[in-house]
Structures are given as C-alpha cells and as structure tokens.
C-alpha cells in the first residue's frame, strides 16, 4: 500500500538548536498534516497544509507543502526541552478528485538536551 | 468543546473477557475513526464511520466490533482478544470523511489495552 518516507528516524539535539524533518511520497497528496505525540497520549495536530507551496507557522514551528505535492517539511526553531516527543507526518493521497484515507509516516523521535 | 474523549484510559483484560472502549466528541464531526498503535509505530487505521455508517473496515479481525450509536459516540467492543492485540487504541474524528477540512483529524488520548 501507499507509504510515506519520514526522516530522520530520530534526532538528538541541544536546547536552542533548530530542527528540520521531512516526509516524501511516491504519489501526489492533497493534504499534509504534522502531529506531535508524547508518551501515553494521542497525537496532537500541530500544522495542517492544504495547498501546494503553502507555508504555515505555528509559533516556533513552520511547515511547508511541497510544490510537487509529494513532500512536506517541518522546522522547529530554537528548540526547548518540552519539544521532546515523536513527530508524525500524515497525508491524504489525491486519487484524481476523490480523497484517500490519512497515511502516517513512521515518525521522528526528537530528544532535546538542556 | 474541541476534544475527543476516550474511556477508559487503561484497560487490562483476559483473553476470555468482553470489554468495550468508548469515544465521544461534541464538535459536530461526522467522521469517526478507530486506530491501533503499537509502541514506536505510527497509528494504523482499523475502522471509519461516516455519518454513523461503517465506511471502512481495514480487514480487522471479528474479535473487534465497532459501533456508532449516534453522531457523537463511537464504541469498540472487544471479545476473545489475544496478547498481541495489546496496544494503544486511538479514536479520532474529522468534520467529514471526504472533502477538504481545515482541522485535520482530532485524536483522543487513547486507551492503553493490555491483554493477559
């Protein structure tokens, strides 16, 4: 079935550093979502993207919907310890006008050293 | 109210038990979802309800039985589960199953299920 390639798988950074992660697919998507999940909790929506080229910010987080509609990235600036968690990208394939179900990347585990 | 509420938060059950997971949302969303998530893995779709009708069953074993009593509630009935069914079960909702939405999927905090 459809898969998303999310990278990196994990990151160990120093507090204050910037972070970048991305997702790519082999086919066109019409929605990209970025979620953060902390232990014992459900994923929390951070940013939603609906148009190719769209660049959206949420505080220190910025995400973009790639022009090719096959990728998206998430940047976190000036990381802090509470940014720790697993970040998932999720996308909805565009099946020529109809929409597929949400597909998740495998996640990026972020660790921040104070 | 912008939350999806799941109960119980934790559940331990034997392989011969029958139990139910509950999910509730009051955002007026018409699509509701059950996901299963194993440790360090992404959520995997199990069922989708659209306008209170089962729309998608991702080849889930019959020991998992979903139910949508009304537009705000979603249940997952469990019977004769196996230890490998132990996982975090997540409920989610969205304004609709198809068409553009400005809110993505809203997830609940999940039920941590352990089958012994």
What does the secondary structure layout of this molecule look like, with pairings?
The complex is a heterodimer of chains A (114) and B (116).
Chain A: E1 4-7, E2 10-14, E3 19-25, E4 29-37, E5 44-49, E6 55-58, E7 61-65, E8 71-76, E9 85-95, E10 98-99, E11 103-104, E12 108-113
Parallel strand pairs in A: 2-12
Antiparallel strand pairs in A: 1-3, 3-8, 4-5, 4-9, 6-7, 7-8, 9-10, 9-11, 9-12
Chain B: E1 4-7, E2 10-13, E3 18-25, E4 31-37, E5 44-50, E6 53-57, E7 64-70, E8 73-79, E9 87-94, E10 106-107, E11 111-115
Parallel strand pairs in B: 2-11
Antiparallel strand pairs in B: 1-3, 3-8, 4-5, 4-9, 5-6, 7-8, 9-10, 9-11
Task: Give a description of the structure.
The complex is a heterodimer of chains A (114) and B (116). In chain A, the strands form two sheets. In chain A, strands 2, 4, 5, 9, 10, 11 and 12 form a seven-stranded mixed beta sheet that branches. A five-stranded antiparallel beta sheet of chain A has the order 1-3-8-7-6, with no helix packed on it. Chain A has no helices and twelve strands. With 114 residues, chain A is an all-beta fold. The mean pLDDT of chain A is 92. The termini of chain A are far apart. Chain B has 116 residues and is mainly beta. Chain B contains no helices and eleven strands.
What overall form of chain B do the CA principal axes indicate? globular
In terms of DSSP E residues, the strand content of chain B is over 45%
**What's the overall geometry of chain A?**
globular
Pick out the low-confidence regions of chain B: none
The main pleated sheet of chain A reads as:
7 strands, mixed
Portion of residues in helices of chain A?
under 10%
Helix content of chain B: under 10%
Instruction: Please give the radius of gyration of chain A in angstroms.
Output: 14 Å
Which oligomeric form is depicted? heterodimer
Helix and strand run of chain A: EEEEEEEEEEEE
Share in β-strands of chain A: over 45%
Q: How large is the count of helical segments of chain A?
A: 0
Q: Structural class, judged by helices and strands of chain B? A: mainly beta
């Amino acid at each position: 079935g459809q898969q998303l390639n999310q990278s990196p798988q994990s990151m160990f950074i120093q507090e204050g550093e910037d972070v970048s992660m991305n997702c790519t697919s082999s086919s066109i998507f019409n929605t990209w979502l970025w979620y953060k999940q902390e232990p014992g909790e459900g994923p929390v929506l951070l940013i939603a993207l609906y148009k190719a080229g769209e660049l959206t910010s949420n505080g220190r987080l910025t995400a973009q919907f790639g022009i090719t509609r096959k990728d998206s990235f998430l940047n976190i600036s000036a990381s802090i310890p509470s940014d720790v968690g697993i970040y998932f990208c999720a996308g909805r394939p565009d099946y020529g006008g109809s929409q597929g179900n949400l597909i998740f990347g495998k996640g990026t585990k972020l660790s921040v050293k104070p | 109210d912008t939350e999806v509420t799941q109960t119980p938060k934790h559940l331990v059950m034997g392989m011969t038990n029958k139990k139910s997971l509950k999910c509730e949302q009051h955002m007026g969303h018409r699509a509701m979802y059950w996901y299963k998530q194993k440790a360090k893995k992404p959520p995997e779709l199990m069922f989708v309800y659209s306008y209170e009708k089962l729309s998608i069953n991702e080849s889930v074993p019959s020991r998992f039985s979903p139910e949508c009593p009304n537009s705000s509630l979603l249940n997952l009935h469990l019977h004769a589960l196996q230890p490998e069914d132990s996982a975090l079960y997540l409920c989610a909702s969205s304004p609709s199953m198809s068409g553009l939405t400005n809110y993505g999927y809203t997830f609940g905090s999940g039920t941590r299920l352990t089958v012994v």
